[in-house]
């Protein structure tokens, strides 16, 4: 399978401490990896570097054949929008927008018409059992509903790389199963999937598991 993501010797230094120490990882098309490790070991920091949100102190993130952190801010933002779906620990929804508008927003930004973006959003919201809540402002959603909306938003542009930081941490077991089925289905359609999780049931659904301790993979 073609390699979607290549991390080469990533380092992230905060003050005098290296939070991530020389992490190297390849992730292929249609492959899923669970990233596990104790709290504070560097999982989220590594995910943010891969997701082009946090600049590495050293090392490279190669996406679409490009050293992503050597690109201009504008080009890197376009690459992130087109290639990466990111599910945050805190859902990061726009509270003044409806569930439907939150999911549709990345598709609008990528160039879809409003109708096309909303059609894609509606299909994902239906998949996550949220059709009745599509017009609700994000601020009025429950924690579990908001997280499912955030995952739908991450998938709306059919990204090549899906990064999920504890995507089921706020969900009951039934909702967690729905979410993981959607994420693994995205991988089955060709997306590469990297999931940070503390849940052994979630980790077991990935194709392989990588552990991180004290910033080292």
From TrEMBL:
Q: Does the keyword Manganese apply?
A: no
Which residue ranges does the record assign to the ABC transporter domain? Answer: 5-217
One Gene Ontology cellular component term attached to this UniProt record is: plasma membrane
- Does the record carry Transit peptide as a key word? no
Under Gene3D superfamilies, the record lists: P-loop containing nucleotide triphosphate hydrolases
What PROSITE patterns does its record include? ABC_TRANSPORTER_1, ABC_TRANSPORTER_2
- State the InterPro entries in the record: AAA+_ATPase, ABC_transporter-like_ATP-bd, ABC_transporter-like_CS, ABC_transpr_LolD-like, MacB-like_ATP-bd, P-loop_NTPase
Q: Which UniProt keywords apply?
A: ATP-binding, Nucleotide-binding, Transport
A Gene Ontology molecular-function term? ATP binding
Q: Which domain of life is it from?
A: Bacteria
* Stated name of the protein: ABC transporter ATP-binding protein
